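Input.
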Amino acid sequence: MTLRETLQKMAAENGSAKLSYGEKVSEPGELLNTLSEPMLNRKAHVQPGLYIAEINEGGYLGQVLLKFEK
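Output.
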């Protein structure tokens, strides 16, 4: 699943989730409009309540892309 698909699903299910990207905190729908195409096309894994991480070419978790805000 790509980051785009993950954010679309989150926006449809619960658009009020807050995610941080750098210093900015946004809702999933906002991130769909502001993140770059290469970023949105990355394969991603959601660890509910904690983070969304990139899945690297080897199939392992890579860098954390977004963090859930509490």
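Residues 44 and 54 are 4 Å apart (CA to CA).
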